[in-house]
Amino acid sequence: MGTDVGGRQVTGTVEAVSVSAGHTFSKPNAGEIRLLAGLGVEGDAHLGVTVQHRSRVAQDPTQPNLRQVHLIQGELHDELAAAGFTVAPGDLGENVTTRGLDLLALPRGTRLFLGDEAVVEVTGLRNPCPQIDAFRKGLLKQVVGRAPDGGIVRRAGIMSVVLAGGDVRPGDEIRVELPQGPHLPLERV
């Protein structure tokens, strides 16, 4: 079903799922989450058609919610551990922690099939905020850096919207479907 740019089959795995009804920085892990089409994660503070992130609501509460589901690759946690930071699934506020996919390399519009029914469409990069340093001092520098050309590199995961609802559990397969070209790089949303 899914292929990468080179034509290879691309699949990954759901490592963990997390949800929080409050606007908390971290989200506790759950046995499963339910994605609702056009809304996000059932029971999560960021559920909604329009933007739910507090700072964005303050700017313009009518903006579409392009941040319904937050995904982070578990490999980032491994890299952070190697740098001396203990970060577990859900700690950085993600709803879905993945394994085996380079999420940051996916183009905008990529569809991720999570488990048997759920489908999300990638909208962009999470823009890490200073709250990350309040969680672990020095962590912001680990997830935001500079590319050789001087551009900002954001590594704190990707955001998506729910196209098809369904339950998502740890161990579920993730299948990737790239959009028709040209492939647009992810920008912060």
Spell out the blueprint of helices and strands.
Elements: E1 11-18, E2 29-30, E3 33-36, E4 40-41, H1 54-59, E5 69-73, H2 74-82, E6 96-99, E7 111-114, E8 118-125, H3 131-135, H4 139-143, E9 144-146, E10 152-154, E11 158-164, E12 166-168, E13 173-177
Parallel strand pairs: 5-6
Antiparallel strand pairs: 1-2, 1-6, 1-13, 3-4, 3-12, 5-11, 7-8, 7-13, 8-11, 9-10
InterPro entries: MoCF_Sase_C (IPR005302), MOSC_domain (IPR052716), Pyrv_Knase-like_insert_dom_sf (IPR011037)
Protein name: MOSC domain-containing protein
Organism: Streptacidiphilus monticola
Task: Give a quick summary of the entry.
This protein has 189 residues and is of the alpha+beta class. The protein is built from four helices and 13 strands.
Q: State the helix count.
A: 4
Q: Percent of residues in beta strands? A: 25-35%
Give me the side-by-side strand order of the main sheet.
Answer: 1-6-5-11-8-7-13
Q: How many domain units? A: 1
Question: Which regions are unreliable across 5 or more consecutive residues at pLDDT < 50?
Answer: 1-5
Global mean pLDDT? 92
Alpha-beta classification: alpha+beta
Shape: globular
Largest sheet properties:
7 strands, mixed, barrel
Give the N-terminus to C-terminus distance in angstroms.
Answer: 27 Å
CATH fold-level label:
M1 Pyruvate Kinase, Domain 3
Which sequence of SSEs, written as H and E, runs from N to C?
EEEEHEHEEEHHEEEEE
Rg is 16 Å
Proportion in helices:
10-25%
CATH architecture: Beta Barrel
Oligomer: single chain
Q: Tell me, what is the CATH class? A: Mainly Beta
- State the CATH superfamily name: PK beta-barrel domain-like
